[in-house]
Amino acid sequence: MTLLRSMVASLFCFSLCMFAQTADELVAKNIQAKGGLEKIKAIKSLRMTGLFDSGGFRADVGQERKRPDQLRQTFSVQGMAQVQAYDGSTGWQINPFQGRKDPELIGDDQLRSVVEDADFDGPLVDYQAKGNKVEYLGHDQVDGDDVYKLKVTLKNGDIFYYSLDPDTYIEIQIEKQRFVRGAVRESVTLLGSYKPVNGVMFPFSIVSGPKNNPEDGGKVAIQKIEANVAVDDRDFKMPSAAPAPKGESK
Description:
The protein is of the alpha+beta class. The protein has one domain (20-236): Lipoprotein localisation LolA/LolB/LppX (outer membrane lipoprotein receptor (LolB), chain A), CATH 2.50.20.10. Helix content is 18%, strand content 46%. The protein has a 13-stranded antiparallel beta sheet with strand order 6-5-4-3-2-1-13-12-11-10-9-8-7, covered by helices on one side. Strand 2 and strand 3 form a beta hairpin. The longest helix is centred in the N-terminal third of the chain and has 18 residues, at 2-19.
């Protein structure tokens, strides 16, 4: 009975601890667990390379980021590369897989997610200054494990649900609800294999896809992350389309 009482008391205390948190406390612990605000802010640019795999279909992926909100992503298969970029005001892409070799502006629906992804530090860092709202929803479960759950409402109205590991306070899952033209688009991102880069923790395993089965979307295994590399601002700018050869019209 003594052992049973001890176990019940421990579970009760754990439950109280799970609920005795506030949103600001969890955000602060998350930032500290990743390396602390000073180290996070000390990173001015990032370059990532990795391998995408979805049911045996593979592609090389790359990403360059630069403060405050510049982003360039590449998706390469057999010498063909799709480019998607945002320079802080304009989103554009080159999509040879759809027969489009010239740069073109990204549509408003897709631009919404690109702008969100371009936030260099993510929505939790300086969330109030960004116009975001964070609420603590208590504890939940991810794959049978307890997590702290935060609801992050972005300034544009989209909602991210962060699941934080109760031991490390680092996110292991993000559910996203994006509201586009009256419709809700839901997705889930699973994050793992965290490793330090310049003293800041980054996930090296990223699985993202539909809410009910994120594995359907594919997995990215990050091979290398470099911090504070030289990245030219022109890499994020939309280039001019190549002129058509004489005698041909676009």
